[in-house]
Amino acid sequence: MMSNNSNQGSKTQQVEAMFNDIAPKYDFLNHFLSLGIDKIWRRKVIRKIIAEKPSDVLDIATGTADLAIVLAKKLLDVKITGVDLAENMLEVGRKKVESLNLSNRITLKQGDSLSLPFADESFDSAMVAFGVRNFENPVAGMAETHRVLRPNGKYYILEFSMPRRFPMAQLYRFYFWAILPLIGRMVSGHKKAYTYLPESVSAFPDGLNFVRLMEEAGFTSCKYQKLSFGIATIYVGEKIKVTPNA
Ligand SMILES: C[S@@+](CC[C@H](N)C(=O)[O-])C[C@H]1O[C@@H](n2cnc3c(N)ncnc32)[C@H](O)[C@@H]1O
Asked: Rounded to two decimals, what is the model's pTM?
């Protein structure tokens, strides 16, 4: 589905169309298919960010703004800017933000993470949940985030990974390839979106292989922490302050 076939458009165009299509059902399916565990993962990421006390945070591929909302609730003077390709996802997010009276602290903008509409060094921290895997070019996308981070700023990435140990690896594969696409298709009415999920996760590097991509994008001191037997992983990388030679 996500080939660069010109009949179907670029991967970016296909991803945008797919998330625009599934936007009304996205939040429900997200929490239902993960049995609510995604909320625990998001809170873990946010706990790490809070420790740094940032003032301006960028939420890349913000979707329906779940990560931005958790951060805004926990850190009361933070300003968050969320960027996403899919206008329909942002529309769901804007309604949630408004109903929570967070519009003065969360701004949602349509845009591509590969060419962000922000000046260099605009944000203290950046975060992304389940976004980087969907980029046309993940290294270029992360390098673009690196550009808009201030020196010493950190990038927090939550992404799916594949558990490798028996019996979780086998059980999860069965769920991921057989059960999840079936329920996803039935509820969202979208034929491909929930087949794309296991396909894209299985094809995407995780652990140290993903850390190498972060380093290629310019991040240093990269660390990762596996969650829930390796079903998801949090990665953190830093933009070092370059001190001119004396
Ligand atoms: C799986 S959803 C994750 C949404 C949200 N971060 C969350 O945790 O629920 C992936 C999101 O990434 C967005 N996306 C994918 N590629 C993008 C890009 N190049 N620039 C901006 N957003 C992108 C999609 O539109 C979609 O909303």
From this structure: 0.95
User: How much distance in Å is there from the Cα of 184 to the middle of ligand 1?
Assistant: 17
Return the residue matching tokens 């298919």.
Answer: 33
Best substitution site from 15, 155, 156 to test ligand 1's pocket, by max atoms within 8 Å of Cβ? 15
Cis before 181? omega within 30:
no
Cβ count near 40 (within 10 Å): 12
Q: Tell me which CATH homologous superfamily contains domain 11-23+35-160+205-238.
A: Vaccinia Virus protein VP39 (3.40.50.150)
Mutate to test the pocket of ligand 1, among 85, 137, 188 (most ligand atoms within 8 A of CB): 85
For 148-189, the pLDDT digits (tens) are 999 999 999 999 999 999 999 999 999 999 999 999 999 999
Which of helix, strand or coil describes residue 171? helix
Q: Is the shortest distance between the CB of 84 and ligand 1 below 6 Å?
A: yes
How much is the mean pLDDT over the chain? 94
Question: H/E element holding 168?
Answer: helix 168-174
Other CB atoms within a 10 A radius of the CB of residue 104 amount to 9
Band (pLDDT 50/70/90 cuts) for residue 245 is: low
DSSP SS3 for 172: helix
Element housing 202 (H / E) = helix 193-203
* Ligand 1 binding pocket includes 134 (Cβ within 6 Å): yes
